[in-house]
Every structure is written in C-alpha cells, then in structure tokens.
Amino acid sequence: MEVEEEVSRWEGYADWRNRAAVKGRHGGMIAASFVLVVEVLENLAYLANASNLVMYLREYMHMSPSKSANEVTNFMGTAFLLALLGGFLSDAFFSTYQIFLISASIEFLGLIILTIQARTPSLMPSSCDSSTCQEVSGSKEAMLFIGLYLVALGVGGIKGSLPSHGAEQFDESTPKGRKQRSTFFNYFVFCLACGALVAVTFVVWLEDNKGWEWGFGVSTIAIFVSILIFLSGSRFYRNKIPCGSPLTTILKVLLAASVKCYATGSSSNAVVSLAASPSNHSVPKGKKEVESEEELEKPRHQEAEPPQTQLTNSLRFLNGAAEEKPVHRLLQCTVQQVEDVKIVLKMLPIFACTIMLNCCLAQLSTFSVQQAASMNTKIGNLKVPPASLPIFPVVFIMTLAPIYDHLIIPFARKATKTEMGVTHLQRIGVGLVLSILAMGVAALVEIKRKGVAKDNGLLDSKETLPVTFLWIALQYLFLGSADLFTLAGLLEYFFTEAPSSMRSLATSLSWASLAMGYYLSSVIVSIVNSITGSSANTPWLRGKSINRYKLDYFYWLMCVLSAANFLHYLFWAMRYKYRSTGSRS
Predict the structure, then answer these.
(1) Where is this region: Disordered (predicted)?
(2) What are 295-341's pLDDT values in tens digits?
C-alpha cells in the first residue's frame, strides 16, 4: 500500500498546503484552466490603464506630451523587467503559487490608490486657468507614482510566475503532457488577447466618457476577482518546490571557471586538464561514455531522470568549474550545475534576437496612434478612439490562435512526423519575418497617408485627412501575427529548454525582451533625431505636425534593421541543439 502511494506522488511538487502532490488529483488541464481565466482578468486590469495612460497623464495630471510619453514607456518597461524578479523569487524561495498571490495583492493595492486619487478632486492637480495648467507635483505626484509603480511591481511578479505556474501542471514525461503544455501556451496568448480586447474597447470608452475613476475601478475589480478565481483552483494545483537561487548557481559556475582559467594560464589548458577521454568528457569511473549527439539531447525530466554526470564539449571553458579540487570549497560545482549554466548561456542569443521585434511593437504603438488620430476614424456612424487601435491585432490573435493549435499544428505533425510539428525556433523565426513585413507595410501606408495630406494641402493643418484609418490596421495585422508566433514560441521555448531549477526565471526573459524593446525604441528614436537633425536639417521624427515627420524613412530603417536581426537570429537558431525530446524537429 505504501509503495503504491509513493508511486502516485509527483516528485518535486507539493499541493497548496505543502503536502506531497498526488498524480490524478493535482495538475492537468483542469488546473491550467484556472490560470487561463486568471490571465484574461489580469491582462485586462493591466492594459486597461497602460493603453490609455498617456492621455490620463496629459489631460488630468497636466504633464507635457514628451514627459507623459516618457513616463508611460518607463512604467511599461519597468513592469516587464520586474518579471525577472518574479521569476527569480519563484525559482529560488517561493512557489509560483505564492508569488502570484503576493504580486496580485500588490497590484490590487496600487489600483486602489489610483482609483482613490482619480475619484477625489483634492488629490488631483488644480484645473487649468485659461491657457495655464499646473502640472501635478508634491504629495499628489508622489501618490500617483506610488500607485503606478505598485501596479508595475505587481504586474512584473504576475508575468514572472503565472505562465510557469500553468505550464507546471502538465506531465512533461509523456507526449500527451507535452502536447497539452504546448496547447496551454497557445491559449495563454489567446487569453492575453481576450483581456486586451475588453481593455481597449469597453474600459477605454469608460475612461474617455465616464471618467478615469471608472477605468481604475474596473481594473481594481478585475484583479480582485482574478485572485478569487486563482484561489478557487488551489486544490487542483501542483506547485514546484523551490530549488534555491538560480543566480547563485550561475555566478558560482562562471566565477569558478574564470578562476580556473586564470590559475592555469588559459582556458584551453583548463579543458585539457579535465580530459578523461578522447572526446573531452569528464567521465566518472564506472560510467558509460555518451555515444551519440542524440543521447546528449535527451530531456532531463525532474520526475524520472538522474542528474547529469558527464561534461559535454560545448562551452568547454566552463568545464573547469567542475574540477574535483576547486580553488576554494565555496566554488565547488557539480557537473549538473555546469551543464545547466551552459543551457542558459546558449539561450541568451535567441533572447537577444527577439528584442528588435519588440522594438517594432513599441514604435507602432506610439507613432501609429498619432497617424490614426490624423485620419478619418469613423466606421459608419461609429467613431473609434485612436487608443482602441490595438483591437485589430487583438482580434486577429484571437482568431489565429485556435486555428494554429487545432489545424496548423496537427497538419504539421502529420507532415513532419514529429511530436511538435513546428519547433519553437521555427515559430519564433516566422514571427521575426512577419515583423519585417509589418515595418515594410507601415512604410507604404505612411507614404499613402502623406500623399493624401500633400494632395489636399493639409501638411500643416490639424484637420482630419480624407483617408480611413483602416489602412493602419494592415500593419497591426502583421504585428498581431508576429506577436502570436513569437511570444507563445518564446514562452514555451524558455520553459521547455531551461533547467527545471531555473524555469520561471528563464520564462521571464520573454517579458524582459518586451521591456528592452521599449527602451531600445526610445534610444533608436533619439539616435535617428540626433543624426538626421544635424546641419540645420529638421529631424525625421520632429516637426510642426506628424504630416511633416519622415516616418516612412524611419519605418524603412526599422525594416532593414529587422532584416539584419533576422539574419543574426538564423546564425544562432541553425546551430542550436534542443535538449528536450518534444522540441526536436
């Protein structure tokens, strides 16, 4: 009886009461379904404010256009960067279950502060007198930023823990479990889009027509309900037990390898001194030599497989960290730790190549809104707010995600006779190609828009151009497709390929890429204006009106940079070797 009970347990997992998780009772698609519903509400709460925040800071806090845009960029970038903190804490000290609850509570507190401020006139800046507006300052400004950055901290923790928590519910030792996990990531992005759809339509309308206290209020209710729904699924979850700080392991291996290389005079000597076989593997006595590259690629499932006992040839300079006699006992590293760090380092170039795509997303979410505002935004008798432009990629993602999961992937599996059908890196590559096309389309649409302005003598006018804003929707459709392929591919790639002790931190890199894309976009705009504004010329991205901007030139530049980035991506992707069975093509 005891043996049967032991066999039925999930090794390395616990339930919400910290008791051993049991197979058949904990985990599976039912548990992951709670996560998907929570993501709808969580993303609604975040995007409801982020998508229209620049208008709130300009019209209600009386910030200048440049300062308000900069503050929004900082807010969104900070929120996504803090996902790394959420991922780190989930791996090191807490479970993803605990980090979500803590982070959602922090975001809830921040939204309450923002709601109270928006609802109380005495906590807002004074009304404008004629042409003079008093910008928010002092304790009122402090209250605003405390609320905003509590929300950013909460969002970061949720993004760093929730995707991993959902993916942890599946048994990766079986093909069925791995396929269900792939479906989960597809529908995670679908649920992101569902929340965004409500945020950029209903909530933006409330903010524009009923007041911002209504918008903040809806977000506050949404995050509160998400906590209740998450808690209601507690008895179904299996929660991975934290394995200690992954950063400590990474730093220890890098430091130990560096000290070893320095002590021996060169990295090559360090590797030679480790060689116990012609293949430069460190093979313990009584252990069998790895016979093929395919064996090296076998997945190391936490529940079933023993720790790795052999050093591989890749990144051989790190092998010195696994020496039997380290310089100091604190620098003692196991073979498993060294191999885990190698995996992380191999994933970093893939991560770096996705930053440019997110830079394109950031640019189009700023300039495209300004373009649309200058165009005819009516569809029949309905006037669409420019802030609701993201509805186009959102609807496209919601349409494409089920088609991809239920039609494209099954067909690809049959055609390629592989478990995945389309590998993670192939999926990311498709997203990068679509981002190149999106920038090319954006340039062509801008040429058309400026042509209409010139033909009608409206280059310096603030009048609405006689051209529909639906032209802008074309670039959004390409970007929506790129986002679906890349974000879902990245989340699954990092979770699947990362060592089990570092999965939440690795998955958080998907959000960190988004943050760095926002920051890089600001840098590129500054560099472009600095270079093109020399010699008494007007910078490409400045002028009396957006009709005087050289946005088409800028979009062509982004198209070229994206193409160069894709070639860079191909260099690394073609050399990457999957470690997980279900990921191989």
Answers:
(1) 277-309
(2) 333 333 344 445 556 777 788 788 877 776 777 777 788 888 888 88
Per-residue pLDDT, averaged over 268-283, amounts to 40
User: Alpha-carbon distance 567 to 434, whole Å?
Assistant: 14
DSSP-based helix, strand, coil % in the chain, nearest 5 = 70, 5, 25
**H helix or E strand, kind and range, residue 101:** helix 96-119
Chain centroid offset of residue 533 CA: 34
CA dist 547 and 73 (Å) reads 23
Report the alpha-carbon distance of residue 343 to residue 578 in Å, rounded.
10
Bridge partners (DSSP) listed for residue 63: none
Nearest CA to 465 out of 377, 333, 565 is that of 377
Which residues lie closer than 8 Å to 126 by C-beta, 6 or more apart?
134
pTM: 0.81
What are the residues facing 12 on neighbouring strands?
Answer: none
Q: What is the pLDDT of residues 569-579, one digit of tens each?
A: 999 999 888 87
Which sign does the torsion angle of CA 78, 80, 81, 87 carry? positive
Which amino acid, residue 470? L
Strand partners, 9: 22
Cβ atoms of residues 223 and 41 within 8 Å? yes
The CA distance from 343 to 299, in Å, is 12
d(CA 188, CA 182): 10
Q: What are phi and psi of 7, to 5 degrees?
A: -65, -35
Rounded to whole angstroms, how far apart are CA atoms 422 and 437?
21
Q: Which residues contact 483 (CB under 8 A, 6 or more apart)?
A: 189, 361, 393, 397, 431
CA distances from 291 to 279, 288, 306, 310, 420 (A): 10, 8, 18, 12, 25
Q: Which residues contact 538 (CB under 8 A, 6 or more apart)?
A: 548
Sign of the dihedral defined by the CA atoms of residues 172, 174, 176, 178, in that order: positive
Cβ–Cβ < 8 Å for 201, 388 = yes
Model confidence pLDDT, tens digit, residues 540-563? 887 777 888 888 899 999 999 999
CA 200-202-206 angle, 5° bins: 105
**Residue 131 identity (one-letter amino acid):** S
Three-class secondary structure of residue 399 per DSSP: helix
